[in-house]
Design brief:
single chain, alpha/beta, Nucleotidyltransferase, domain 5, 2 domains, 14 strands, 38% helix, 24% strand, globular
Length: 311
C-alpha cells in the first residue's frame, strides 16, 4: 500500500500545499496554492484547514493508500511541539491565539469516516518553523547535500535561518545564535530582520528617493532589470548588507555554504554581486533556491518520517 504525506507551507495570504510519497517526491498534480483566510475567525480558519486536508486527500488517485501524516510550516510565534499558535498583533491568524491546532484538526478529521479509513495507524499532525523545514528539505534533496556544514536563509517578510552540521540542525550551540535564529541579532541600528527582508529593501528604496507607498519589491526588481540605476543600486546595497550581516555568523560557524531561499532569492541576479563585495570569506559557496516551498514540502515529509520512526 502506498503511503503519502500532505504538506502545507502557511503564509499570511496564501497556503501552498502538495502531497508527497514516502520517498519525499511530490505527487504530480497536487501542488496547489490556496487562500490562507488568515483574518477570519477561529472556526472558519480551522474548518478551512480541514477542508484543505480532505481536498488534497481526494486528489490521490491510488485505489489503495494511506495518509501517514500532515505537516505544516507555520509562522511564529508558535509552540511547534505542542501545536499551539501564539500569533498576535500581526493581522494574520490572530484568532488562533492560544488554540491547539493539532487537537482541533485531529478532532474534526476523526468525525469524517472517509478520512479515518485512509489514516495510517501512526498518523500524526506536526508543525515546525518554516526555515527549519526548508533546511531539512535542502539537506535531504537540495544544495545542502553537497556540504557538511551550511547556513540556510529564507528571506521574505523577515529573515528565517537554520544551521546544518553533518546532517543535523543545530539550534543550541556556542557557535550559532539561540535557536539558530539570526533575525533578532543586532545589526546596523537595530536587528537583522529590519535590514534583510522586504521592508529592508523598501527602506533602502525610500532612502534612495523612491516613492515606496504601495510599492512591492518585485516592482523594484523589474525596474532594476529594465536598467533603472536607482533600483539597481537598492538591490546592490541590500546585497552588501546581507554580506555584512553574514560575516559574524560565518566566522563563528565556519560553514562551507550559504543557501538562500524565500521570495527575495528570486532577485539573486540583482544582489549577489553586493554580497561578494562585503562577505569576508571569499571561499564560501553561495547557492539560491527559487522554489522555496518545494524544499519546504520535502522537509515536511522528512519531519513526519523521522517522527514516525521515533514513535
Amino acid at each position: 500500500m502506498n503511503k503519502y504525506a500532505i504538506a502545507f507551507d502557511v503564509g499570511g495570504l496564501f497556503i501552498k500545499s502538495a502531497v508527497l510519497d514516502d520517498k519525499g517526491h511530490v505527487l504530480p498534480g497536487t501542488y496547489t496554492i490556496y487562500p490562507a483566510k488568515s483574518k477570519e475567525q477561529k472556526e472558519v480558519i480551522i474548518e478551512h484547514f480541514v477542508g484543505l486536508i480532505k481536498h488534497q486527500t481526494n486528489r490521490i488517485l491510488d485505489k489503495s493508500f494511506e495518509i501517514y501524516g500532515v505537516g505544516y510550516a507555520f509562522p511564529g510565534p508558535f509552540d511547534y511541539p505542542g501545536g499551539i499558535s501564539y500569533i498576535r498583533q500581526t493581522d494574520k491568524f490572530e484568532h488562533l491565539y492560544g488554540v491547539n491546532l493539532r487537537e482541533e484538526l485531529t478532532m474534526r478529521l476523526e468525525q469524517d469516516p472517509l478520512f479515518v479509513a485512509r489514516r495510517a495507524d501512526r498518523f500524526q499532525i506536526r508543525f515546525e518553523n518554516d526555515a527549519n523545514l526548508f533546511a531539512l528539505g535542502e539537506l535531504f534533496a537540495g544544495h545542502a547535500r553537497a556540504f557538511n556544514r551550511s547556513i540556510c536563509l529564507t528571506i521574505g517578510t523577515g529573515t528565517g535561518s537554520a544551521f546544518i552540521d553533518n546532517g543535523q540542525l543545530i539550534a543550541n550551540r556556542a557557535d550559532v545564535p539561540p535557536n539558530g535564529w539570526v533575525y533578532k541579532e543586532p545589526f546596523g541600528a537595530s536587528i537583522v530582520d529590519d535590514y534583510i527582508s522586504k521592508r529592508g529593501i523598501l527602506r533602502l528604496a525610500q532612502q534612495a528617493g523612491m516613492k515606496t507607498e504601495g510599492l512591492e519589491v518585485k516592482a523594484i526588481a523589474d525596474m532594476a532589470r529594465g536598467g533603472d540605476a536607482v533600483s539597481r543600486g537598492v538591490f546592490h546595497q541590500f546585497g552588501r548588507n546581507l554580506g555584512m550581516m553574514l560575516n559574524p555568523f560565518v566566522a563563528a560557524f565556519r560553514p562551507e555554504a550559504v543557501i538562500i531561499g524565500g521570495q527575495i532569492a528570486k532577485s539573486k541576479d540583482l544582489f549577489l554581486d553586493g554580497v561578494s563585495e562585503t562577505l569576508q570569506n571569499s571561499l564560501l559557496a553561495i547557492r539560491t533556491v527559487d522554489e522555496t516551498s518545494l524544499s519546504t514540502f520535502v522537509g515536511i515529509a522528512q519531519m513526519l518520517t523521522q517522527s514516525a520512526a521515533k514513535a
